[in-house]
Amino acid sequence: MRIVLLLPIAIVIGLGSSVAGVRPLAAQGTPEPPLARAVAMLDATEPERAIELLRQLLLGLPPAAPSALRSEAHLRLAAASWSLGFLDSAAAHFQAAVREDAFLRLDPDVYNPELVLAFRASRRAIVAVGVRPPPDTLLDTRTGRWPVAVAVSQPGQVRLRLVPSGGAGGERPPTVLVVDSSATVSFPVAAADGVELASGQYRLVVEYAGSAGAAARSEASLEVAQSTADTLVYEAPPPDSLFRLEFRWGPRSRGTLLRGVGVGVGAAAIPLLLGQNQLRTSGTTSRALLVGATVSVAGLAAYFFGRPRQRLPENIEYNRALRSAWEERNRSIAATNAARRGALMLRVRVVREP
Amino acid sequence: MKRTLLLTVGTVVLLAVRAHAQQPRNLLGLGIQAYDIAAYETALPLLARGINPAAGPRDSLWVGGLHRLVHILLEQHQDSLAAVWMRWALRQKPDIVVDTINFPPAVGNAFTLAQRAVAGSLRDTVTETLWEWPSSPPSQQSQGAIRIESSGAPVSTFIDGVGTLAPGEQRALAYGSYRILASAPGYARVWLEREVLPGVTTVLRLRLRGPAAGGFLYVAAAPWGSVYVDRQFVGYTPLAAYPASVGIHQLRIERPGFAPFDTTVAMERDQRLRLGTIRLRTGPGAR
Questions:
Q1: One domain, residues B197 and B228
Q2: Which of A45, A159, A258, B257 could pair with B218 as two cysteines, CB 3.0-4.6 Å apart?
Q3: One domain for residues A90 and A167
Q4: A219 falls in which pLDDT band (50, 70, 90)?
Q5: For residue B286, is it within any domain?
Q6: Could you give the number of structural domains in chain B?
Q7: What's the CATH number where A218 sits?
Q8: Mean pLDDT, chain B, integer
Q9: Which of A15, A39, A112, A117 to mutate to test the interface with B (most CBs of B within 10 A)?
Q10: What distance in Å separates residue A127's CA from the closest CA in chain B?
Q11: Does any domain span residue B285?
């Protein structure tokens, strides 16, 4: 398929330098975040302007700016630099992105193979370690394990220590493990001797030691406090839609109809045939016929509306199992709640991200 | 028997002593002599030094020395190193005819594999490759090195699996074949493959194709795709500042699983032609 140019694709023709048009960030004052505008410029194949904007963004970021934003900006800058042939600059920005976020990986579906290769090589060329504790966790003081994710740019030994800050008790023995790229460590909350973690402020210190003497460090501040666990809410009964019909209507019975009509005919005929003719009046005849007709109509109604109910044992069993499972779950919740009311918990909260 | 042994040992010692005072080209001859009397340990360093292409023509002596070097390495179970030497040699002299009469089938098979590996990358006109041979015989396990030299354009290079390399910087590397990307702003980037030999410094002198009398092409696509200009692969999207000559060019973007995108672009002098972002579609024609 060949499509002649100048049709639906967005083509912008620029003569000369396209970088010159970028004003300083402070003078722009637009509500749109600079990173989003840089991405839009990259989409519009204006990498030179995007690079300028991203450089300004990084220069203007305050020290407390989120590392995710810095990492993203460096990553975009690296990709734009690479496309323009500034390979050294691209490698430097890839490394800066990894330093900001050691967990950073490039998705091969999103980034082209050259960028993925360059990113991997840049990542391996530096030493970076990152730690990601869960932001807010409630753990059992005796059996709870605290999951912490660790990422390194090169394979090496990682040492995790929980250091009290501000006299919160003694330092726990470190956890040491070899990490190839990333790993999740489960810290036991209780020490090996059964001593529980005291409430207070802690620092989670992650130290990396590589094969060639390379070292890196990252840390996070934590707040540990005793807490009680919230009880669980009881489960609502299963909705009616989940239950199956326990019986069904059987077919109409011709016998019922015949019996009804027969009894009606009998009710009319017996007084007429067997009654004394001398005592009969026109009133008694019509009453006998009325009784017979009424009984017959009742039989007819019984035929139409009086279908027999047939039980469905499989459905009855299914519904019983459904009810039993719900009751069992609620019994389990009740037991858990009873245990929770009696157990002490530790709340571990990240105060400051690394 | 004893006399033959003494004669062989004497010859080997003589070869080793003579080797110190020889030119590389003569070392090749001495290495062949040592190989012919099965003195492989003596022959290997002589051949590895004597095969230096700067020492003489790539003639039958050079090809014979290569065969013997490869055979010794295969005998020593250094197949990967033998393959590197063969790929290196085939890039110098693509028309090497394998001697299947005087050498065992393993040598022929290894040559065939090496020929397949270097096929398609023989006609490279953007680089001049040189080798700096060490003055003393290197161990076949020692590291080699690579260095990039460029003139004019501010070239930056990236070695797959290693990282970027600044012009003039020498990087020590284990022996092997390396994919190298050379790029400069406004120049067509190029992927090369070169061998690093034990103890030898591979020097790449780059001559990138400069901005011809034309303009620059920018292409972005989502998801990324391979870009072909006039049926020649020029890189992946996002492609930026690709130098294109004045005139009409066929542009194609391909990505497995998506329908190829084809268009025609008309480039004018000093123009910066920007196509973006082209959305590749799945569906009919997707591969």
A1: no
A2: A45
A3: no
A4: confident
A5: no
A6: 3
A7: 2.60.40.4070
A8: 86
A9: A112
A10: 14
A11: no
Q: B275 and A114 in contact by Cβ < 8 A?
A: no
pLDDT for the residue A25? 43
Does B172 lie at the interface with A, CB-CB under 8 angstroms? no
pLDDT digits (tens, 9 = 90+) for A48-83: 999 999 999 999 988 888 888 999 999 999 999 999
Q: Which of B63, B98, B118 is the last residue of a domain?
A: B118
**Cβ contact A122–B163 (<8 Å):** yes
Among the partner residues B156, B184, B238, nearest to A47 by beta-carbon distance = B238
Q: Within this chain, do residues B93 and B7 fall inside the same structural domain, yes or no?
A: yes
**CB contact A254 to B (< 8 Å):** no
The answer to whether A13 contacts B223, with C-beta atoms less than 8 Å apart, is no
A313 occurs within a structural domain: no
A positions 116-155 inside 8 Å of B (CB): 117-118, 121-122, 124-125
Provide the strand spans (E) within chain A.
3-4, 11-15, 129-132, 136-140, 145-152, 156-164, 175-179, 182-188, 200-209, 215-227, 247-249, 309-311, 345-352
B107-130 residue pLDDT tens: 999 999 999 988 866 455 677 888
Contacts of A86 in chain B (CB under 8 A): 156, 185
Specify burial of residue B156 (Cβ count, 10 A radius: 0-12, 13-18, 19+): buried
**pLDDT value at A26 more than 70:** no
Model-level pTM?
Answer: 0.71
- Alpha-carbon distances, residue B148 vs B108, B120, B127, B164 (angstroms): 33, 22, 10, 11
Instruction: Mark which of B180, B206, B232 sits at the end of a domain.
Output: B206
Q: Rounded to an integer, what distance in angstroms lies between the CA atom of residue A154 and that of residue B172?
A: 19
Query: ω into residue A313 within 30 of 0, thus cis?
Result: no
Q: Which domain holds residue A194?
A: 129-226+347-352
Statement to judge: residues B169 and B245 lie in one domain: no
**pLDDT for A333 beyond 90:** yes
Cβ-based neighbours of A299, under 8 Å, separated by 6 or more: A256, A257, A259, A260, A261, A262, A263, A264
Interface test with A, best of B148, B159, B239, B272 (most A CBs within 10 A): B272
Q: What pLDDT was estimated at residue B285? A: 56
Q: How far is A114 from chain B (nearest CA, A)?
A: 8
Q: Tokens for A73? A: 């900006």
d(CA B264, CA A40): 25
Same domain, B221 and B150: no
Contacts of A46 in chain B (CB under 8 A): 218, 274
Q: Are residues B6 and B112 in the same domain?
A: yes
